[in-house]
Design goal:
With 177 residues, this protein is α+β, with helices and mostly antiparallel strands. It has one domain (21-176). It has helices at 2-19, 31-41, 100-106, 136-142, and strands at residues 22-24, 27-28, 48-52, 58-61, 68-69, 91-93, 96-97, 115-119, 124-127, 134-135, 147-150, 157-161, 164-169, 172-176. A five-stranded mixed β-sheet has the order 2-1-3-4-5, with no helix packed on it.
Length: 177
């Protein structure tokens, strides 16, 4: 009888472990953390491997471009690696080398040159170790266009219009003027 109970317990453990195959910055995210993110932010993370910049909130699939932005400073993942998105541009933001797709998106609002930069969750940025020299939210507004982007995977959207920028998720939003 004890062998049967142990077998059932092992089967439950194995099936529960199979449910959580979420890796952020090469570190497995616990089932509890996944549950808390869904409860707090409405973010449902599918099994997969992702990179996440916890300073500015950018995220993408491991080896890929930026897919969107979520709140910064979430307690998930390991340290962001420079090769997280297989960038070859010579442009580094918060230690991650950007792929050309990210650089192309940035070039719509700012002159982009190779170098090492920092960017925070409010859009402030500059050269590493130096004070801020630009704000991407301000520059996006100044470019005059209205824009909107919604990630079909997370349902989180962001945009700007008429001097206001925003990020919208299920049950939460951040608006800046």
């Amino acid at each position: 009888m004890k062998v049967y109970v142990v077998f059932i317990a092992m089967t439950v453990s194995i099936s529960m472990a199979a449910q959580n195959k979420v890796y952020v910055n090469n570190k497995q995210v616990s089932e509890n953390t996944i549950h808390q993110l869904k409860k707090t932010y409405g973010i449902a993370i599918a099994n997969g491997s992702y990179w996440y910049d916890n300073i500015c909130g950018a995220w993408g699939y491991s080896g890929g471009k930026t897919m969107g932005f979520i709140p910064a400073r979430l307690p998930i993942g390991g340290r962001l690696q420079s090769n997280a998105s297989n960038g070859r541009s010579g442009v580094f933001v918060n230690g991650r080398q950007l792929p050309f797709a990210d650089v192309s998106a940035l070039k719509r609002i700012i002159n982009v040159v190779p170098g090492r930069f920092w960017l925070d969750h409010k859009g402030n940025g500059g050269y590493e170790g130096m004070p801020p020299t630009f704000n991407l939210i301000y520059l996006s507004r100044k470019s005059g266009g209205s824009s909107f982007y919604r990630n079909s995977y997370t349902g989180i959207g962001s945009g700007s219009s008429g001097g206001t920028s925003y990020v919208i998720g299920k049950g939460w939003s951040v608006i800046t003027n």
